Amino acid sequence: MAITNQQILRKIITECEQALHNESKVREHAKAVQSLTDLLLEQEFTTTTTSSSSIDPVEWEKMVGQPTPKPATTDSKKLKEEDANGDSLLDF
Asked: Record's InterPro entries (predicted)?
């Protein structure tokens, strides 16, 4: 079950309200808020990094001004040796 951003933000609000009512524990609540914001920022970072691989080619061209780069392809010219048994380096 994933934690939504709304749940984290509600918890941050709760921690801030508790800090306002109990000044002797402000630092503890501030640490909790810091941890929650770190979690929130980390989630946003991971979602943006995972979605970056699925950029629409039209969107890419608008942002960069160039067509979408083609993924590097390796020419699969197989080396034919007398002693080779397969494609893997571990095949003897």
From this structure: DUF5327
Task: Quote the pLDDT of residue 1.
Answer: 72
Are 15 and 33 spatial neighbours (Cβ–Cβ below 8 Å)? yes
The pLDDT value recorded for residue 36 is 94
d(CA 13, CA 8): 9
Contacts of 26 (CB under 8 A, 6+ apart): 19
C-alpha 32/C-alpha 18 separation (Å) is: 11
Average pLDDT taken over every residue of the chain: 79
CA–CA dist 19, 60 (Å, integer): 45
User: pTM (2 decimals)?
Assistant: 0.48
